[in-house]
Each structure stands twice: as structure tokens, then as C-alpha cells.
Specification:
Layout: E1 2-7, H1 12-27, E2 32-36, H2 41-46, E3 54-58, E4 64-69, H3 74-81
Length: 83
């Protein structure tokens, strides 16, 4: 499983989630891809991201397994990522 984290530089909540939940997942060995919605709009559109921050968990074939927006906890992501 892989976490795709959609954010924007201007988004304070995005930075708060990156500094806490997402960085902890990276420290625990999670596979995380960071996507700036302003720099990669086509990728953002492909995942139908309309709000940030958004965390999408994808399986090995790239299919969406779970999606979380705004504020989310490390517990649900740990479980989805198998950590």
C-alpha cells in the first residue's frame, strides 16, 4: 500500500498534517508520495481531488483503497497501510 498526499504550499492545514501525521508515517517506513496540487494538476484531477489536504491510500496496482480529507489520524492510516 502507498499513501498519496495532496497538498498546497499555501494551505496551513496541509503543513500541519505533513508535520505531524504524514511525517510520522514516513518515519515508520510508509511509502508516501507528496503531490503539490498547484504543480501537478493533471495528477490531482486523475484522483478527483477537490479538497486539501487529501490522503489517498492506493494498492499495488494503483487502485484507490481509502481516502481521507481535511483532518485525519495516524491510526486509520497505519491500519490502511499495514504498519
Amino acid at each position: 500500500m502507498k499513501l498519496v498526499f495532496f497538498f498546497a504550499d499555501y494551505c496551513g492545514l496541509c503543513h500541519a498534517m505533513m508535520d505531524s501525521v504524514v511525517s510520522e508515517l514516513v518515519d515508520r517506513g510508509a511509502d508516501v508520495e507528496f503531490v503539490d496540487v498547484m504543480e501537478r494538476p493533471h495528477y490531482t484531477d486523475a484522483f478527483r481531488v477537490t479538497r486539501i489536504p487529501t490522503a489517498v491510500v492506493v494498492d499495488g496496482s494503483g487502485c484507490e483503497y481509502a481516502r481521507y480529507t481535511d483532518v485525519f489520524t495516524i491510526g486509520v492510516l497505519e491500519s490502511d497501510l499495514g504498519l
